[in-house]
């Protein structure tokens, strides 16, 4: 359950739903497996799995949600191959050419026949709402996957006034400055990506490298900026920060995980609760700390997006 990635959304209006109210609204969108002729299915599942039948897990005011997506795996190459075989058979037997409209009809028939026998793949996405902090945090490695959950949540609730944080300054510019002076409570890691401005600009990727070394300074003097930067925060978290304000490869420190282990009970539900309580507080504090060192939020622009 410990988040590995982070996509951040800011509420433009206070979130006032109780856990009970949220539970009732999500129940209408519970996950169900794909039907025989469905390519995919999406819905809410229990964050605690078999340990609880609740769709909303509440701890210290934080609300944990979990969505599941199931896809039927029907490779386009398989369908194309079957269509080609059928076209060849008809053209050989009837001595005529098969045109696009008829090919499309064959494609639909073959897809309809193969779908019920296709394997399925499941993926879950966790997120939690922090009403007091005005945040929705999603454990997703891409905005596309995060937006799937946000869109489905919006459909379940009727509305969901969230947007990515409106930062006053471009993160790339601030992150570049950090190679010379890292903000308080943050330390540089050993990984970065630097690029020249523009779509055609060169890109330099560094791993297991001293980011204060002279060769890095030469790239900065040539006009490159930092797009991705590995950091550690207050000995609690290591992560890779991108200039789109997403975080990847979150690694929680031993101390916080040991604290969760000490506070958790013997059963899975108690351990989940302890993990969630510490993780949620830690991530919210990190987000606010990052916003501050990145120059703060443009509240006026945030209100315009509301």
Provide a descriptive summary of the structure in words:
By secondary structure, the protein is an alpha+beta fold. The protein has 3 domains: 5-71 and 119-161, no CATH class; 74-114, no CATH class; 169-303, no CATH class. Helix content is 38%, strand content 25%. The protein has 9 helices and 12 strands. The strands form 2 sheets. Strands 1, 2, 3, 4, 5, 6 and 7 form a 7-stranded antiparallel β-sheet that branches. A hairpin with a 3-residue loop joins strand 10 and strand 11 (237-242). The radius of gyration is 24 Å and the shape is globular. The model has no long low-confidence stretch (mean pLDDT 91).
Radius of gyration: 24 Å
- Unreliable stretches: none
Q: How many separate helices? A: 9
Find the structural class using helix and strand composition.
alpha+beta
State the order of secondary-structure elements, H for helix, E for strand. EHEEEHHEEHEHEEHEEEHHH
What portion of residues is helical?
25-40%
What can be said about the biggest beta sheet? 7 strands, antiparallel
Q: What separation lies between the terminal Cα atoms?
A: 31 Å
Question: Number of DSSP strands?
Answer: 12
**Beta-strand residue fraction:** 25-35%
Our count of domains comes out at 3
Mean pLDDT across the residues is 91
Shape annotation: globular
Function: May be involved in recombination.
Organism: Aestuariirhabdus litorea
InterPro entries: RdgC
GO molecular function: double-stranded DNA binding
């Amino acid at each position: 359950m410990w988040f590995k990635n982070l996509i951040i959304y800011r509420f433009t209006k206070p979130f006032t739903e109780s856990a009970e109210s949220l539970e009732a609204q999500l129940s209408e969108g519970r996950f169900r497996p794909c039907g025989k002729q469905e390519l995919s299915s999406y819905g809410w599942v229990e964050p605690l799995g078999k340990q609880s039948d609740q769709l909303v897990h509440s701890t210290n005011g934080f609300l944990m949600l979990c969505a599941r997506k199931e896809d039927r795996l029907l490779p386009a190459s398989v369908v194309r191959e079957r269509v080609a075989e059928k076209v060849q058979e008809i053209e050989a037997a009837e001595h005529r050419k098969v045109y696009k409209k008829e090919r499309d009809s064959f494609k639909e028939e073959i897809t309809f026949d193969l779908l019920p026998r296709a394997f399925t793949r499941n993926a879950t996405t966790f997120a939690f709402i922090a009403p007091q902090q005005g945040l929705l945090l999603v454990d997703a490695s891409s905005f596309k996957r995060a937006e799937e959950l946000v869109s489905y949540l919006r459909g379940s609730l009727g509305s969901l006034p969230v947007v990515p944080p409106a930062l006053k300054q471009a993160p790339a510019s601030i992150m570049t400055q950090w190679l010379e002076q890292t903000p308080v409570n943050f330390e540089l890691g050993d990984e970065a990506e630097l690029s020249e401005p523009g779509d055609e600009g060169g890109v330099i990727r560094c791993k297991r490298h001293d980011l204060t070394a002279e060769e890095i300074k030469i790239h900065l003097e040539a006009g490159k900026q930092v797009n991705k930067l590995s950091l550690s925060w207050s000995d609690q978290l290591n992560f890779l920060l991108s200039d789109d304000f997403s975080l990847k490869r979150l690694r929680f420190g031993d101390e916080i995980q040991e604290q969760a282990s000490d506070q958790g009970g013997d059963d899975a539900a108690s351990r989940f609760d302890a993990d969630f309580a510490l993780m949620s507080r830690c991530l919210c504090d990190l987000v606010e700390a990052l916003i501050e060192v990145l120059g703060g939020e443009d509240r006026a622009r945030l209100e315009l997006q509301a």
